[in-house]
Amino acid sequence: MMDMQIERSAIEKHNQSLLESHRRRFDFIAAAIPGADEIVKKLIDFQVAIPSWALGTGGTRFGRFSEGGEPRNLEEKISDIGLLHALNRSSGAISLHIPWDIPSDPAAIKALAAQHGIRFDAMNSNTFQDQPGQALSYKFGSFQHVDKNVRRQAIEHNIEVIRHGVELGSSALTVWLSDGSCFPGQLNFREAFQRTLECLQEVYSALPEHWKVFVEYKAYEPNFYSTTVGDWGQSLLYASKLGPKAFTLVDLGHHLPNANIEQIVSLLLMEGKLGGFHFNDSKYGDDDLTVGSIKPYQLFLIFNELVEGMDARGMNHATDLGWMIDASHNVKDPLEDLLQSVEAIMIGYAQALLVDRAKLKEARQANDVTAAQETLQDAFRTDLRPLVAEARLRSGGAIAPMRFFRDEQLRKKLIGERGMKTIATGL
Ligand code: AFD
Ligand code: MN
Ligand code: MN
Questions:
Q1: What is the pLDDT of residues 104-140, one digit of tens each?
Q2: Which atom of ligand 1 approaches the CA of 126 most closely?
Q3: Is 327 close to ligand 1, i.e. is its CB under 6 Å away?
Q4: Whole-angstrom distance, CA of residue 232 vs CA of residue 177
Q5: Tens of pLDDT along 343-401?
Q6: What residue owns the CA closest to ligand 1's atom 2?
Q7: In a mutational test of the pocket of ligand 1, which residue from 220, 251, 282, 288 has the highest number of ligand atoms less than 8 Å from its CB?
Q8: Distance CA 168, CA 106 (A)
Q9: CB within 8 A of 379, min separation 6: which ones?
Q10: Which of 79, 72, 40 is nearest to 56 (CA)?
Q11: pTM above the 0.90 mark?
């Protein structure tokens, strides 16, 4: 059931109306920079996985203000991502969260996703909430828990998530553990680490042949004194002890204020232990704000390290890391927010591709700090949106997705089809 069909003719009409001005802008920037076409080709290949839990309005512990027209089930979530992908041609994947997204009919879900050109990226397990009817509580943690029965329940859940993923064609599991402590004395840190590692090792041994497991770290929240997978060092320690199929997952909002994330990314990539990202932005904590909305320069600096580090290892930019969004939209239309987030990621990536690597290397060799900074900022200050739009156009998408979304009143149409009072499962 295709909830919302975006007519090809509507996109073509939209593009026709914008083509002349787009062409002018594209030709201008393509004449001003080297390798415009190469950048466009890389942008066409680059796909960002959309989190299933972000298609509805998020909320905080203080309240949730749903928008209306939100997806009521997994089919509608896939349809919403199909809408995004039809417009930006860069959202060709979905990251599911279990048990929120348990498919009633996996084959039908897989076929529906394929119809939209969407594949299944990493699966996310959930041992940070107690589900209805759950035998044992995760109130005091899951893999770290002192009770081996709780740990067993959490291991079984993660193995169940892998099973769902295999049915859908996914090949990665993201484990984010909210485990930790709220007060000094509550935990023996060493024993909590050991128990967590033993559980992760059991999950690791259940991974199918070509699967990866991403160990996601987070500085604090919901625990506020310590987190058992609390920073990149701990995640790297777990991933290194687990083996070659285990990697770290970098969520941009999961660092203490002012952390140098681009340096962390550079070193994890050097170690071959960077698994992927949960992109978002933040001012203070794990705010899950729109990518690039607060610190776009940091996003560019991260991509600058990624492009340099991936090229140093001969990696395929599009396929060798997990590119996922993890955001929560409390006051914006979720689909508009996701269109903005994907665009910000594409712009940051394009700018990083534009960096004059030879000039940067020369400046570094000469300890010419000013020239090194100028080289980076030169790329960051170049407006590459016409290249991102060109990549969409060449892939059959819309030159201006946000304008299309509004001109076609797509949210109003979704409300018409689903009603005002719909709540999507998720955070
Ligand atoms: C929350 C956590 C973490 C996790 C996500 C999905 O902070 O980022 O990846 O939920 O489980 O945002
Ligand atoms: Mn995350
Ligand atoms: Mn988070």
A1: 999 999 999 999 999 999 999 999 999 999 999 999 9
A2: 11
A3: no
A4: 14
A5: 999 999 999 999 999 999 999 999 999 999 999 999 999 999 999 999 999 999 999 99
A6: 176
A7: 251
A8: 6
A9: 300, 304, 351, 352, 354, 355, 356
A10: 72
A11: yes
